[in-house]
């Protein structure tokens, strides 16, 4: 499942990031923010009518706003244990 498809308040783990879908500066910024394989992530808020705007994700202890195109490059697996 892609991160932009993850239901609200559902904890998941980043399985893979398609770095080729991102510009080099965008990929670098996601890495700096802590996005990487194995990291726990949770969608906290969908912005915009019809889910077309950015989404807010919890990564570690911080909340980060992501463009939907960036979230679509991130594949997640739903965690077996709820946190």
TrEMBL record:
Protein known as: Ferrous iron transport protein A
Protein keywords: Iron
Positions of the Ferrous iron transporter FeoA-like domain: 1-78
The record's listing under SUPFAM superfamilies reads: C-terminal domain of transcriptional repressors
Q: Name one GO molecular function term.
A: transition metal ion binding
Q: Does the keyword Iron apply?
A: yes
Q: Which InterPro entries match?
A: Fe-transptr_FeoA-like, FeoA_core_dom, Transcriptional_repressor_C
Please provide an example of a Pfam family that matches this protein in its UniProt record: FeoA
């Amino acid at each position: 499942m892609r991160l932009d498809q993850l239901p609200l308040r559902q904890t998941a783990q980043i399985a893979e990031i398609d770095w080729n879908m991102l510009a080099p500066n965008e990929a670098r910024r996601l890495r700096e923010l802590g996005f990487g394989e194995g990291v726990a992530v949770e969608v906290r808020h969908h912005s915009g009518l019809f889910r077309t705007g950015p989404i807010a994700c919890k990564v570690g202890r911080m909340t980060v706003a992501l463009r939907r195109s960036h979230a679509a490059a991130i594949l997640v697996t739903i965690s077996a244990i709820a946190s």
